[in-house]
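Consider a concrete sample entry:
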Amino acid sequence: MVYPGKWFRASVMALFACVILFFSIAASAAENPLLAAFHQFRISNFAALNAYYRFSVNGDTDTLNEIVAAINESNSQIKQVDASAGDILKDDQIESLNTEFDKYKHLMRQNINDVRKNGYPDLRLVSDMANQAQALSSKSAELYDIVRTNNNVKADERVEAARAAAVLMAQMMSKYSARSTSSVSQTFQGADTEQPLDEQAHQFDEQMSKVTEGHPSGELRAALSSVASKWAFIRGSYINYNDNNVSFVIDRYSKEILRQLAEAIAMMTGTPVPEQATAQAPNS
């Protein structure tokens, strides 16, 4: 005979086990090594560009090390893309991405050397690099979408929204850094087809609304709430980007948002936070 109390406890335990299994499956389904590598590749490339703009006016060794670390991370991630591509991407697609990345790295080296040698940047080369960064981002986004829409890849909508928000933040951060740097302010626009900062800021709002759907709880809720509070502090600076603002504050808070979005993505996918993401900014 099964007593009601024992039946109830057994039912609760079974239900609890099912819930754990469900969330474990959901977490593993939301993650894909190829998507994760592409995402971090894009973030790191913009992080390098952002650091370069600051390096162009201060020539600081720590800022140079920041550029090198971001480029090294991009190198690691593009190798991961190649290793994980399988049958989803063709060899010529990977080769095309590598070609665009090599151009970007070459221009970065040239621009760094100009600053170290002359003490100031060559604006033509900086403009070329800004446009190449946009071309590399477009190529990465194109291949990312091919992977995301593949029948064998299961993408989670909230994870995708968080990644889209992070890429937008990285783009905005680098453009704002360029605009705040008087010597390269005319190149901040990047490619002619790139959206202005205020439009990107509104898109960031839209993506974050998708991320917070379903009323997340626990640590995820805390991370997203922290993103929201920091975004509220700097949002006006991105919307009204012609106003005079304290650029290092914008830079710091933007990096914090990137770090916490990386943490949120890690929670949603059940994976470790990328090392580069944890180095974006110190805890506040």
